[in-house]
Amino acid sequence: EVADWQREVREQFPIITAHPELAYLDSAATSQKPKAVLDAVHAYLTTSNANAGRGTYPWANRTTELVERTRRRVKEFLGDPHPERSSVHFTGGTTEGLRTVARDWLAPCLTDGDEVLVPFADHRANLDPWLEAQGLLADRGIRVHVRALPYQDGSGDYDHRAFDRVVGPRTRFVAATHVHHVYGADMNVHRIREAVGPDVPICLDAAQSIGHLPVHVGKSALDVDFVVFSGHKALALPGTGVVWARNARGPAFRPGGWQGTPNTVGIASLEAALDWLDAVGTARIAGWTSALTTRLTEGLRRLTAYEIAGCRSSLAADSSVPAAQRRHGIVTFRHRDIPSDDLGFILFSHGFMVRADSLCQAGADEKTDGSVRVSLHVYNTVEEIDRLLTVLTSLG
Ligand code: PMP
């Protein structure tokens, strides 16, 4: 059952192998880093560290080349069919990336009476920037209507059957999420494109999908206009984020544009992380983590003391999509009687590191209050899931 390739991959994470008694189950917060990434950081800092974009000597030239090469690498990683038209903008992370799209690109495009569709129950980082843009415009006398993307109760996904009610002739923009950070649901982005037609830009928050499953922007794959993600959740260093823009105009999206000193060491880590992820294969990673997710979900469903967030009957009833395929590496649940911080403490006493605090879900803290979140990456094992289920069973 334990695949050889996975054992080899796990051994490439020094922090994991150094602590066999611990199970890291908080990768949705941040990922661990493989040796290839640590080595790339060390190599960059010991051979080339300099500022980028202003080089008259080899270290500076190598740093400039690193940044430009990583822009190209991001496009390749995303399967960008037209890299000559798109741009890659480096940010500090998803939060800053979404804010950049909202403030520097979206706000100047909107006029009085326009409508935008945004998620009201995903990560707060994918709601606040759009509301802030609306506020900025309101100060200038431009009224923009922000509408909620409808959700399907209990599935964790958007409700594509209700899109007709919110999409109209003034719909100018949609912000959506690829994989939900609480439910692990693989959101149905295709249906959003179908509902809004080919001309309305879609911005995708890929914080929880990048590095976990293929994120490909070819027209037959994810037909979106912006992909925003954080390097630190995809095996690279914190403080490194990406906005990929298919064909955006505006100062922040100038191809090859320089806005101050980029996080060069973070960019070195990102290049190494993308190389590593492509070598292992994001489809293979997705297969592994969704098998673990299914094992955990099925185990939990047998335990009556636990309730899984966003996973009620309707998902099971939607036979068109097998539940297992739609969940990626994230399971949030609560115990009937044990508060989340106690449960987090008990689990850590058994070596499990989980999230047992606010999940930063917009407008829904009360729904996930008292919940803990288990989130996985390629280094997690069947044995860890089974041990976790044994402990959870003993608390029932
Ligand atoms: N969006 C989603 C879906 C997330 O899960 C997160 C991080 N939990 C963010 C945005 C924010 O990412 P960051 O903190 O790296 O900016």
- Beta content: 5-15%
Number of strands: 12
Largest sheet: 7 strands, mixed
Oligomer: single chain
Taking all Cα atoms into account, the compactness measure Rg is 21 Å
Poorly predicted runs of 5 or more residues: 313-325
CATH third-tier fold name of the largest domain = Aspartate Aminotransferase, domain 2
**Total count of helical runs of at least 4 residues:** 14
Q: Work out the count of structural domains.
A: 2
Task: State the CATH architecture of the largest domain.
Answer: 3-Layer(aba) Sandwich
Your description of this structure?
- The protein is an alpha/beta fold and 396 residues long.
- It has helices spanning 4-10, 14-17, 35-47, 58-77, 94-109, 128-139, 163-166, 189-196, 264-280, 282-301, 313-317, 340-349, 365-368, 382-394; strands at residues 23-24, 87-91, 115-118, 145-148, 171-177, 202-205, 226-230, 241-245, 306-308, 330-335, 352-353, 371-375.
- The protein has two domains: 4-34 and 281-394, Aspartate Aminotransferase, domain 1, CATH 3.90.1150.10; 39-279, Aspartate Aminotransferase, domain 2 (3-Layer(aba) Sandwich), CATH 3.40.640.
- A seven-stranded mixed sheet has the order 2-8-7-6-5-3-4, sandwiched between helices. Strands 9-10-12 form a three-stranded antiparallel sheet. Strands 1-11 form a two-stranded parallel sheet.
- It is globular, with a radius of gyration of 21 Å.
- Residues 313-325 have low confidence and may be disordered.
- The protein binds 4'-deoxy-4'-aminopyridoxal-5'-phosphate.
